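Here is the promised in-class demo. Please do not try to memorize the tokens; focus on the logic of going from shape to residues.
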């Protein structure tokens, strides 16, 4: 199934974003949604240490649990985008709340690490991915001029969740054990259902369309073949007034109706009625064939639009940068506690968990960067590139940190820079346009999920191989720096000379003009 609604903007029109009003309610519930769903997966570093001791597996193998939980939802972003476009943010959020809560509770009964791959990694991760797409999409619909601020506010929910859940899960483990901790955290996640129920879609403010029959509900974009306009209209009329009325009015199942017609058609109708019945069958068959052809045309259009997106140099560089950033930038939030334990840092020196520091500084970074993105003199693409380059430098510095103070400072810096997630949807919107946001964002989040899934296991394998983290973080820093430089090259002003050819590009393509201040 492909995101049909993405290609039918002429039929589904949203009201102008109000930049306020009920939009602030959307911001609040989206904040708490991300707080509740991402709190445990982002603070999985606390659980990671417990799973290492409980199952006795290697660091790389155990790291797959946390990396799947944070990556699988992003890997499934195209599917998540289709779900949100097809069903709306509210139903998806409510359904996903059950997934997250159920996955966390199931994890409390895990007999081995492989069970956690499914319950915690896939079920919880997929639920988080659906919730993330729903919150970002509906927020972008409600905000335009203040979109950067709104996205920054809702994205701080996951960071505050990381800060609180890091300490909460540690306390719950001390009081009730690992299993009890997961049960309680799963129960808390059920509050997502209340948040999701308030995600009122923007288009619902308009008067509801008139009730349609099942044939009229076929979107107009299906009718792209106009060889026989009258024949198509006759098909619809026949199906409406004939076959559908017979089936709906009489409430006779298809198989029973076919049996009755086969037995009685020759004896109960005259010659003219026989011809009418045969004509209806032929017309219905032709209509179904045309509908199948038009469905196939939609598939082709979807892939054509995907190819058009990748013809945009900045978009192509953006997907490489996000992949490399998540391979290198995500492991610290999962493994920093184990880095401190491997450095033989005394637990008495701990004034605050390193994961909590990352969480609170990520919240500060998201809010700060989101506010900066709303200033006209700030180029959001250059701002995003700057955070990538600084993250790479900070990762290179981790092997030189041998005390709690230096690790805490680096954790704070990395947390702040990781707040660039709040401006990533903003950069994507400016690159491809709001009309293609869901399509493009789903593709980019797929590669982000791939990086999230691969990053921690790679760092864990480096440790299992070398028995130290230095080489792993050199590799991580190199990946992030490489992605930042590639994106910077794609965004250089010298490429603006090529924008004169933009008129030759297919319609609905967008190029990020670096000279303009986003």
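The designed amino acids, position by position:
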């Amino acid at each position: 199934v492909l995101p049909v609604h993405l290609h039918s903007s002429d039929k589904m029109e949203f009201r102008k974003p109000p930049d306020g009003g009920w939009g602030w309610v959307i911001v609040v519930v989206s904040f708490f949604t991300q707080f509740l769903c991402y709190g445990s997966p982002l603070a999985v570093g606390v659980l990671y240490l417990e799973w290492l001791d409980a199952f006795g597996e290697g660091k790389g193998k155990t790291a797959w649990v946390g990396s799947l939980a944070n990556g699988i939802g992003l890997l499934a972003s195209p599917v998540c985008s289709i779900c949100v476009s097809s069903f709306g943010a509210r139903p998806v959020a409510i359904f996903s709340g059950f997934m997250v809560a159920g996955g966390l509770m199931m994890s409390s009964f895990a007999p081995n690490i492989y069970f956690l791959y499914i319950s915690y990694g896939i079920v919880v991760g997929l639920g988080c991915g659906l919730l993330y797409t729903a919150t970002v999409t509906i927020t972008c619909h409600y905000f335009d001029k203040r979109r950067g601020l709104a996205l920054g506010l809702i994205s701080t929910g996951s960071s505050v969740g990381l800060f609180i859940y890091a300490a909460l899960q540690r306390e719950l483990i001390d009081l009730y054990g690992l299993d009890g901790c997961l049960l309680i955290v799963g129960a808390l996640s059920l509050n997502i259902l209340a948040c999701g129920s308030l995600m009122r879609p923007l288009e619902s403010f308009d008067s509801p369309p008139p009730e349609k029959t099942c044939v009229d509900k076929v979107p107009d974009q299906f009718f792209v073949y106009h060889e026989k306009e009258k024949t198509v209209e006759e098909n619809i009329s026949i199906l409406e007034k004939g076959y559908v009325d017979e089936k709906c009015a009489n409430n006779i199942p298809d198989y029973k109706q076919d049996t009755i017609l086969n037995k009685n058609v020759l004896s109960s109708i005259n010659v003219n009625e026989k011809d009418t019945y045969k004509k209806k069958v032929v017309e219905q068959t032709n209509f179904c064939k045309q509908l199948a052809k038009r469905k196939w045309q939609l598939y082709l259009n979807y892939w054509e639009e995907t190819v058009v997106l990748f013809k945009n140099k900045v978009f192509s560089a953006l997907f490489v940068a996000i992949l490399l950033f998540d391979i290198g930038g995500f492991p610290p939030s999962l493994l920093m506690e184990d880095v401190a334990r491997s450095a033989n840092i005394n637990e008495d020196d701990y004034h605050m968990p390193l994961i909590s520091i990352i969480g609170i500084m990520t919240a500060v970074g998201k809010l700060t960067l989101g506010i900066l993105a709303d200033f006209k003199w700030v180029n959001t693409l250059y701002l995003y590139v700057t955070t990538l380059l600084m993250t790479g430098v900070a990762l290179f510095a981790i092997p030189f940190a041998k005390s709690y103070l230096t690790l805490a400072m680096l954790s704070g810096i990395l947390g702040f820079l990781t707040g660039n997630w709040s401006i990533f949807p903003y950069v994507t919107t400016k690159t491809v346009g709001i009309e293609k946001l869901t399509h493009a964002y789903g593709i980019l989040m797929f590669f982000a999920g791939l990086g999230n899934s691969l990053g921690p296991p790679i760092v864990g394998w480096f440790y299992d191989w070398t028995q130290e983290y230095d080489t792993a973080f050199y590799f991580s820093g190199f990946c992030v720096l490489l992605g930042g430089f590639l994106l910077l090259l794609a965004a250089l002003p010298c490429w603006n000379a090529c924008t004169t050819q933009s008129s030759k590009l297919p319609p609905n393509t967008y190029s990020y003009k670096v000279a303009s201040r986003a």
